[in-house]
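Standup, Tuesday
Yesterday: got the pipeline producing structure tokens again.
Today: sanity-check two examples.
Blockers: none.

Example 1:
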Amino acid sequence: MQARVKWLDHMSFVAESGSGHSIVLDGSSEHGGRNLGIRPMESVLIGLGACSAFDVVLMLKKARQNIRDCEVLIEAERADAVPAVFTKVEMVYQVDGTDLSEKQVKRAVSLSVEKYCSVAKMLEESVEITHRVEIAPGSLAV
């Protein structure tokens, strides 16, 4: 796996993945940025949420769960001192579907966070990661 990060100007950078996709990153105005892209630490949270959501959707599809939507809301706290690393992360999985098994949804989320999500595994030694599941009303099997 490869990536490339190139400085554009001010505090703006373009990140290019080995698979040929790009994102723009930028700093806040207090650090010379112009708010043209996401912050680097935001990209870590996005990577965490996307990695885990990918796992959850894949597991639920393999379990033949009729999933319509999966959204991960992430709230993080950072240390006050430099480096301002993440200290706590809470992940809320909002899942919608038809005739879902609550047990299978919760199991997929737990397996992702605790075993399969590479980003979560990298962060778990230094960050307290918690998670919870919210299943949309009317989505559970009766």
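Example 2:
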Amino acid sequence: MKRRSVLKAAAALTAGAATGLPAPAIAQGAARVLRFVPQANLANFDPIWGTQFVVRNASMLVWDTLYGIDNSFTPRRQMVESEEVSADGLTWTFRLRPGLRWHDGEPVLARDCVASLERWMVRDGMGQMIRALRQELVAVDDRTFRLRLSAPYPKLLFALGKNNTPIAFMMPERIAKTDPFQQITEFVGSGPMRFNRAEWVPGARATWSRFEQYVPRDEPPNWLSGGKRMLVDRIEWIIQPDPATAAAALQAGEVDWWETPLTDLVPVLRRNRNIRIDIADPLGNVGCLRFNHLHPPFNDVRARQAIAWVVNQADFMRAVVGGDDGLWRPMFSYFTPETPNYTEAGSEILKNTRDPAMARRLLQEAGYNGEPVVMLVAQDLAPLSAMGQVANALLRSIGMNVEYVATDWGTVGARRASREPRERGGWNIFFTWFAGADCTNPASYLGLRAHGEGAWFGWPNDPAIERGRDKWFVARNAEEERAACEEINRAAMISQPFTPTGFYRAYQA
């Protein structure tokens, strides 16, 4: 996989991003300040507790990783100076780079990394696999720690450096010992920027300042690997949910970079010679209509299939991107289009002519009888608001009683973690998107895990998907990997862990 995906914001603020994107304008003055309008509000700031991209992006400024993925999706050393693996592949010994310091001035120690990995392994899919094999994870000395496994895990370094959430960020031991199902309350890292906690106003503003003691790797930057050399002294995130206001601020020079401009406003922005418009990520995004598999009606596979039978991806995608048909394409798959593992195996349920009569029959067979269906829709993220509006009309057209909860993304992020039934504050459907870079294979694809209680929000349980995933991890070549992905795709099209609403690319300005 040689194509490069651009993480939505944070990495591109350092020289280490190597994204190939236009350099954003920098506000002039005594300090070099970058004013950035992110995709959503930074409502919480714990990259292990949740999986929101906006938190991941902010976290990349503050916390560092043991390894970083380069633009060929190969893990490279980041905080690690060296590693050794035993001949049987069971024992890994890692040594940290010298001179690493936390933002409070204390040295980064091996025991900090051990505690950080222990917390991460509880919440991350690949981390859970490592945890199941772990025999020992201990600090040997201040700069060395050892991981001993019961069976080889060839993709270990990829897991420690991967770019999708939750990322294995390193934190001081006292913070990393926080219950992984509780949010941290202290934000001390060893990355290139300090978080200005006193200036944080959720819903309005978040800021970071350069960490002068950060020591980048002495090598060229390459996406999330290599030397992260900060080009600015201060970063200001200005939360602006109203697209027209964000566009006006960009045109007036009040902000420097808008992460997710509304497609309808792009023609206006293009007319300003001081603004550049580019595709933010060539690997694009995968639209997701996510079900809660724990409670009726979508604990019954027939109810989930009913939705798939009436989803028209063109309706969803045109609502998301507007009239620019060059920005989207149908996606009759769970894997990113135009990548080696893309397959449409078993996808007739999405390809066939939309069939409302089939949907109503399946709902009846599933025992649905007009009960409220709680649909969480983030109004402050234009793609999710658009998907929610299309789905609302669609579900009502087949006789579903939709309780449309229009809220903000921070609230969706918190409420989707509830496993309670709808009548006790739970939910039935929410919308999101996955970065295409996360959907090229099953290694760390959150939406495709189907191991019940340990799965991502929605908690699907499908042994057939998991068997295909296991085959991918032991595949000996690309052909076997693709065969495993075809098996996963067939199983997922039957059980519908989520319904893909299409593939789209987005602009940044």
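Quick observation on example 2: The chain has a mean pLDDT of 92. The first helix runs from residue 53 to 62.
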